[in-house]
Fold these 4 entries.
Entry 1:
Amino acid sequence: MHWIVRGDVDGFFGLALDNLVQLLLIDTLCRFVLGFPPELVYGRVLPGAAVSILVGNVAYAFQARKLAARTGRTDVCALPYGINTVSLFAHVFLVMLPAKALAAKLGAPDPARVAWQAGLLATLSSGIIELALAFVAERVRRITPRAALLSTLAGIALGFISLGFLFRTFARPVVGLTTLGIVMLTYFGRVRFKGRIPGGMVAVGLGTLLSWAIGIAPVGAQPSSAAFHLPVPVVGDLVAAIGGGHLLPYLSVIVAMGLFNVLGSLQNIESAEAAGDSYETRSSLAINGVGSVAAALFGSAFPTTIYIGHPGWKALGARAGYSVLNGAFVTIVCLTGTLAWIAWAIPIDAGMAIVLWIGMVISAQAFQTTPREHAPAVVVGLLPGIGAWGALMAKNGLHAAGLGGPARPFSEALVGEFLKTDTWIHGAFSLEQGFLFTSMLLSAAVVGVIERKWFAAAAWCGVAALLSAAGLMHSYQWTLDDTALKLSPAWPFAIGYAIMSLLFFIARWATEEAGDHG
């Protein structure tokens, strides 16, 4: 199999664009949401991302060539790989932003650096989880219902990805709706523009032109100059993160995201096998884990993953070369500071339709790839993620009204004020803590009920009771301008889940079939 074929060029444009959108998101979220200084973003975070993406892309390219040599085929396509979108948002909004707020509350001299260190630790932990589970991943996949796995991701996709960018689309409709139309045409309609120009490139290109025409671009001040930044190990900051206690407060997010990275990768490996390329699960997940560990060691706070879409790249004719080309492109963009110019010239609005599409596809997949009768379990799994996003919106609304901070801190009194409008905000804040666990466990329990596997349903609820008793779900505390996980038993929830577990356990003896008319 040749290193580069014509289809690799087509595949490169698509995969590179996907990765470029992730890098633009990292640049925007790190600088404008987390308040990272440019020297931290361009000197540490992006070089670390370059290392992780280059390592994984090259490894998956060699893996594809090895499979081609073993099978005697020339049509083997490498697994697509890059920054994990879901983890990107989870690390920003569920790990680093709360860590920064807490550091500011405690009077830390550099809250932004504390937030970055928390992200490094989360990324390192995610990579270690992936490496560890590479040896048992198949067993985990068999135990957990698919509806529980995919609906949890779909809830995050709908709330933290799709709805936020949907608001932005309709806030700037000239760019937003135009690019959304292109994405729908090419990705949902499964057509391409003549000349084999990738639809994503057309969307970003036209979106950029419209952004300049209506005054959305350029974004911020023009960068002074591009600068070369070599990747530098940041072991000292990782040690500081461990000593700073950044693991336990975000354990539910870190463990859940590590698990979902593994399970999402498993689904993509299965998808590749269905397209004709059968890759070994253990080595594929190990490469993924090594990529995330490398990211953390060199400064990136964002884990990597096997991307969805292998059958599409394979259909374009991509083989191994598109993976190497993507790794080289991302490395150049990240190490030379070129991304600063790209971020200045191409506003996030130009590429947000692609991210919105990602959220829609993840959500649709939860229904498309699970048994039809499990649809109620998928809906149940969606709700906690959407609810957690709603809690975030409620707190953002309070901030917009001037609440939060030493002068007007958040407090228990807010619960009563919300109740005056029949808004049960206590439930929303309780649901927000550990919502990834809540989503997966409730959805899995519903699958057990639908299939009348009463003991399995009882076991999932029993796990929920234990996690609630351990303070990893539903237990929250007030901070000056937020709510945060409180590692103390949430006894009302533990008791509630325990009662559910008991009900399902005795259902075999206490119930009978209702029949068609109930």
Note: The chain has a mean pLDDT of 88.
Entry 2:
Amino acid sequence: MNQNLNKQRNMTIIEKIIKQHSNKETIIPGEIVDVEIDARVARDFGGANVVKNLINNGLSIQDPSKTFFTFDTNPGGSDQKYAANQHYCRMFARENDIKVFDIDTGIGTHQAIEKGLVQPGGTFVSTDSHANIMGAIGAFGQGMGDQDIAAVWARGKAWFKVPASVKINLNGKRPKNIAAKDIILNLLNIFGANKLLGKAVEIYGEDVDKLTLDERITISSMATEMGAIIILFTPNKAIYQQLESLSGIKSPLIFADEDAIYEQEFDIDMSSFVPMVAKPGHPHDDTSVEDVKKTKIDSAFIGSCTNGRLEDMRIVAEILKGKKVASGVVLKIVPSTDEIWRQSLDEGLIKIFKDAGALVSNAGCAGCAAGQVGQNGPEEVTISTGNRNFAGKQGRGEVYLASPATVALSAVAGYITDEMVDNDVPVEFERKGLKLVPKKDSNKKISEKPLVVEGRAWTIFQDDIDTDMIFHNRYLAITDINEMGQYAFDNLKGYENFAKEAKENDIIITTKNFGAGSSRQQAVDCFKALGISCILAESYGAIYERNAINAAMPILTYSPEMISEIDLRNGDIIKVDFVKGEITNRRNNKSSKINPFYDVQKEIYLNDGLL
């Protein structure tokens, strides 16, 4: 009976995409499926590790025509380690026929859309945690860690757990003063960082259908901050025409079936939305602009994969024309792609920016990735169009997130505002042996790995511990796992000395959405370097869960009642059985059930990792 129902199942967008890229006749949320990937990307900070994983494991590239490097996190190569990684990748690309979107092109995910690397209904992976921006064109994008990308480059496929789909209906008219950034900040205010954790979200509405490509990119770009796997839009005629104009490729149609099955459906009145800002520290800690109006700023930033589009540049230019950035305030503007930079130049927008006193940089990720302009210093207050304002993410100061219009108006005023204020506030090449050649002896001797561990408990009962708290982005250029352990949790308040105090076999127990945020593999590997035997959490960030499983780092989930059932206290010695799904407190011999390993997780763990 269930099989017949499954065959007749009306599918959501994500289910259709996964089915079309797998050998499955039916797709059910929760099942694990091998999915063919249309475009496979490594960026500059993760690319070197991807290459090392391939070489060290004797792997070759399944299809170079679908394989790409994008250098966008440090397009200036201004850091020696970034510059070394970029050139290492260039040399590898030359010898293996891989196309490089180099430092003069801009953000990789945007290049993928504009160049037609991925089409509606397609699949895309990158070492960029915002690869799910592809939801803007009705495609499936996913951020991955270095091992995952290396495996996809070698196999052409990746395993995925089919996400449940959620439908959001934005009813009513969008107020004239509400930008796409305001829409996603209002949604973050409603859903927070984990209410839609691991879900594929589809957004509908009469005014939603009118959203431009640039606006859809802004909203989809922040799915990661909402904890969602992806935010998907159904492309309309205008979107298809624009995509064909950009890439010269006619896109296939993609849409959810009528009466598709959704886990949940939400009706939200968009007419009640107000201009919003995210307060420093968390993208989901949102309030109205009115609530923080006149908060003094030191700097302003316009750009990132969320708001560096041409429409954003035009909005900012309209505000800045004939105006000056407030004295003492620094305004930094970074278009997302070189094409947008050039068009901004042709339209005279760059001149307007410069006349207003702004610093304009070449296209790229800018301050969001710590490799370009846009960072701030200690105690510096910044208002930014970026997608993240985790502590330390865009610098050591405080970062508010807002729409391009709000940021531009605030830069002129010298303080946060959504109104125009006239103010002046003293505010050819030699080969390097990188050609991939499979190893002659592929038999690896792998030591036996324990399926039951015992160690001291670290109880860290805090939701939404993000990857910047676990392993800060200032250490991203580190590729030696032996160097990573010392930085574990050094950006998590109260646990700055964790790496010094942790002992081998210790066990971390935390709560919801552990590992939210970035796709950085180091946030897993730092615990492996310290000898942490396993991590238990109520839930994990989607990319973090993949990275941990693929790195053979034991992670498991539990229900909240487990804590009281075994009377768990910090420092208790506990035993964890990965296969039985059982935890025992040695202090009192009380036991409780937890969720055991998935079959694929056990297989990867016993193989000592995905590769």
Note: The two ends are 39 Å apart (CA to CA).
Entry 3:
Amino acid sequence: MRQGSFHSYLRGAFGKDLMASAVVFLVALPLCMGVAIASGVPPAAGIVTGVIGGLVVGTLAGSPLQVSGPAAGLTVLIWQYVQAFGFSKLGVIVLIAGSIQILAGLMKLGQWFRATSPSVIQGMLAGIGVLIIGSQTHVLVDDAPKGSGWTNLISIPEALWKGIFPMDGAAHHLAAYVGLLSIIIMAAWKFAPGKLRIIPAPLLAVAIATLVSALFQLPIKHVSVSSDLLGNVNWLSVESLSGILDPSLLVAGLAVALIASAETLLCAAAVDQMHQGPRTNYDRELFAQGVGNSLCGLVGSLPMTGVIVRSSANLEAGARTRGAAVMHGVWLLASVTLLTSVLNAVPTTSLAAILVFTGFKLVSPKAVRYLLKYGKSEVAIYAATVIGIVATDLLKGVLIGLGLSLAKLVYTFSHLEVRLASDEPKEGDSTLLLKGAATFVRLPKLAAALDQVPANVRLHIVLDQLDYIDHACIDLLSNWEKQHEAKGGQIIMEWDLLHRKYFDRTSTVLAAAAAES
């Protein structure tokens, strides 16, 4: 930044960005630690990712007002990978993911990562929410997750029972009380006066839970963070790096890259709708995320994405430039050095409460009502994605949703309803109703219907409900019209409308292709 523009920034947007960065820091700190614990890694790994997301990605980002950091959406996937490969291999997986994102950004594939059906995205978020609830309910009572998502869910009653009985002041019982208190605070905080709500609800819940735990000296689990952040970084070793071509790690890295990129770019699109400033450069954002995740891989921390909770807090607090995201990274780095004793007093159950609360918000009934406007098939894809994620894993569940979306697309563009009916009021008249997409795939069906038309009738072909028609079907209708008239029949058809359905679409495609080249 040039000296003149820097002075202009200090006089203008700096004050707003400074205030916004403080708010985002207060939101991000408990989330960084909570996501790390839920992912099965030390809290420091989450804070390191938050620092890189602020200092590095904040500087390079194509979405200046978006804030990046460890995301709840990846917790279940990362937990599975840590259990399967070990914490030492996490850095390799994240490095692979970051490298893929860098290449995708350089190849200008940013827009393509957004080409995902809303039903799959909503299903992915809901599935993640269900898995988070399943795993973090156990942490809420100072217990450990049981393994798979399905196992966690069916063992929730056991966790609740353990948190309630026996009422003898045992650690599980006390942790459940503190966790429940945290959830109640977050749920009730939306009713607080507007001026007070500048304090983030998660921060308030953690602060009160920490105060209660310290005041009564509760024998429950607490966060463990060292002030020597660099000394506790899980640097990627040469030995670990040697496994970078392991097919299982490559698949894991690809899964992280795809899901993180989709979540980031969808978040960026949502952020664009929340302000009137510069629009997102998706390729640059994807590249910046790749650089950030590559660095996270080298230091063995969690992967990052653009995060809507922190980004919306950034906008609501009045951020004007990328400086707010960068400064929040500075505060995260300073907190590990200056507030270590405070962080170590935080009960893990309060962080689990934040994630459980987030999980319930992800499983939103509003999404189902929204998708229902576009048909029951979209809700079915949503449900299949959720069930697939819970029954198998995140990647397979998303692939199930994508597969069903593609199947629906193929059906839509190959389905043609042809109905031939005689008009009773006018003897000798018939109507042929076409509905759907008339393509060469359904040409035999259309030809068979036309062959059933008597030779000397007047046929009215209704095109209003036809979504698309290709040149093969237009040729069939044109040739059949000549043959039918030669036999004494008559055809009534809006040829102008028919040609527009084909040629307007064709010219649009050709124009788009010319613009791309």
Note: The longest strand covers residues 429-438.
Entry 4:
Amino acid sequence: MQSVHEILSEYWGHTSFRPLQEDIINSVLDGYDVLALLPTGGGKSICFQVPAMQQEGICLVISPLIALMKDQVENLKKKGIPALSVYSGMSFVEVRKTLQNAAFGNYKFLYVSPERIETNLFLEFLPLMKISLVAIDEAHCISQWGYDFRPPYVRIAALRTHLPGIPFLALTASATLVVQNDICEKLGFNEKSLRFQQSFERANLSYSVFNVGSKQHKLLEILNNVKGSALVYCKSRKHTRDIAELLKLNKINADFYHAGLVSADRNRRQEDWINNRTRVIACTNAFGMGIDKPDVRTVVHYGVPDCLENYYQEAGRAGRDGKKAYAVLLYNDRELDELQQQPAIRYPGKDQIKAVYTAIMNHLQVAAGMGEESSFDFDLAAFTKAFKLDPLSTSYAIKALEQEGLLQFNEVFFKPSTIVFTVDKSSLQDFEQQHPPLEPTLKGLLRSYEGIFDYPASINEGELARFIGKPVASLIQDLNQLKQYGIIAYSPLKETPQLTLILNRMYADSFTINLDNYLLRKKNFEERIKAMTDFVKDSLTCRSQLIATYFNDHSVKACGICDTCLDRKSLDLDKEEFQQISEFIFKEIEDIYLPITQLLERGGRFRKEKIWKVINYLQAEEKLAVTKEGELFKRKRP
């Protein structure tokens, strides 16, 4: 059996692991449950892919992102590693065929969405699979106190009854201490489980925040001064187009990206940017997940995100090659005021949620007590127009219904055309002899798609038609004929937004949501808004330290390259003044914990910037420390 280093070298071409990867891998191989916090670009997938390759059996990977699942499966296949995926939108025949392959084939990975593991079909095949490891990607989705709570994640722990003794590896890039603890509790980790947290320090990444009158001029200044690949995160789809046009007018090679584009456009624009045919992408936060482009020099936020989790993930896409990179946030005071209003908008009242739920059920013509596990094409714009509803508040009401586990709305939905043969090879030969006009299409399928008898193959009708030498319309007619004869299971391409009912429609007088938990989620959102606002407005503390402290990493020292660090460096502070400020600080905090804000108020005869400079120095010298609540205290010498 190969060692983990040999596997890393053969399949990934690396000679050594990144920090903590090997510790995580060895802990999983020793049978421990593990929570791994690896910041953006920290190499999370290696932590479950390498140990899975070192063991017999198949690794079950639970991920909420269809696009990410597909990318990882394709990347594994390119390395010669057999992998499968099951996701929403696949037909029953496709799912059953895939699960059969996972149970009886020589596959190493099965990627599934969290909703899938609860279905009867999955549970029927689960005992037949030799599961070696359960990996839970985006594990912060388990916690309703986090920024991206998804109810199906809470029910992942039920797998333990079917997989006794199999280790669980939970992975996330960003989780506060409260969320970390909640993840471990919800997954049933015991006292022997392990937790690894990579440092949130990015020594090459310079964070800056600018309150500017003209964002357009500042953006052009940034992109003209810092050459190379860049991302500009925008708050709306319309804004992405406007920014891209602005940049092109100023001779900067740019394009835009958002979830409303058809799949082919999204893929083309993404590939053009990855391969440096496009320098700048103006995008919504739909862009970037799972993309590992190392040479991004600049990430600009053209507005304030609603939480530090999102900001850190998006800003962290800059400088993954270790070279100097910049994360710049542009804002104005009006935006901060609007941010404070978001909790009331994002968390509509119970009556409003009920009204939207009733309207959806009526729109889909679902009777009370019916509809469980049914999926529907769902045009949100047409729905809100038909029922005279506000689109924004309706979308947040739908989000609340999702978090209550009543339904699921997938706006960014893309399912490629798929085909799998439903007869054996002997029966297929008999069919060909009886239907000669369909023989070229059958031969084209067999020659173009390996394994098409075993699992659903993603096909491109245009490419297949060119290969066979037929018009696309004629090919599709053949495929539909073969489907009608029962020779293939054919599912045409689909990218219409989907709404899936998790539970039957509730009767009007029994509609209920867990209001206590709903209000607690609102309170946590308010706290995340406050943390984001504090980050923007703090012009004294090192940006890297602010981010790291938020994620319970208190080991990060002042970076020296963010805007606040550079501002402090510019302050002149002679030895005598340093001594005076040090004495003032130690006198004020003698035997007490004192909030820094109070210390700054009491130090009226000194400039606040200079007090901060001394505090940071004394922290670096380990003579002072700061609690996560921002209270300063004197370190006791051993």
Note: The chain is about 45% helix and 15% strand.
